[in-house]
Design brief:
The chain contains 7 helices and 3 strands, in the order αβββαααααα. It has 159 residues and is mainly alpha-helical.
């Protein structure tokens, strides 16, 4: 699972490390289409720029060097939105703290359904990439401080 990275990027699980069809199937269960972008090509709808995933409406764009956590995070931004809002998304999905928290929680849950990844690996990758939580780690947040995000998802029938 260690795809070579530049000196500036931490070693995390990348799309090229997993079976692409597994990711396609996972996102399709949530009415999303996953698109593979050629190596070195711009990623449409990428908020943070390459190699981060991009989103436009119900489409998620990734390259082999896109971190899996980025693919799941951006996909989850779309999953938490009602269809009428999802259709309007281009690059930036939300400015809502509750939606952002729900997105982070859901990406961890969905990682468990992605062969070759799992929640524990995803949380380690999120920490390595620089996600920050007041309890010091993604796992601590998920296990001890994310009740509101979990409740938000349950209330909307997403968990």
């Amino acid at each position: 699972m260690d795809t070579p990275t530049t000196d500036a990027e931490p070693r995390v699980t990348r799309v090229g490390d997993i079976a692409f069809n597994d990711a396609v199937a996972l996102l399709a269960r949530h009415a999303l289409q996953l698109h593979h972008v050629a190596d070195g090509a711009p990623i449409p709808g990428s908020y943070w720029g390459e190699p981060e995933a991009g989103i436009i409406a119900s489409d998620v764009y990734v390259r082999n060097d896109t971190p899996v956590h980025s693919m799941l995070h951006e996909a989850c931004h779309l999953i938490v939105l009602p269809p009428e809002r999802r259709a309007l998304v281009h690059t930036d999905a939300t400015d809502s703290v509750p939606e952002e928290d729900a997105t982070c929680y859901l990406q961890i849950v969905l990682a468990e359904q992605l062969p070759g990844v799992g929640s524990a690996q995803l949380m380690a990758d999120m920490d390595a990439w620089g996600y920050t939580y007041r309890l010091g780690s993604t796992r601590a947040w998920f296990e001890q401080d994310a009740e509101d995000a979990k409740a938000w998802l349950i209330e909307r029938g997403l968990l």
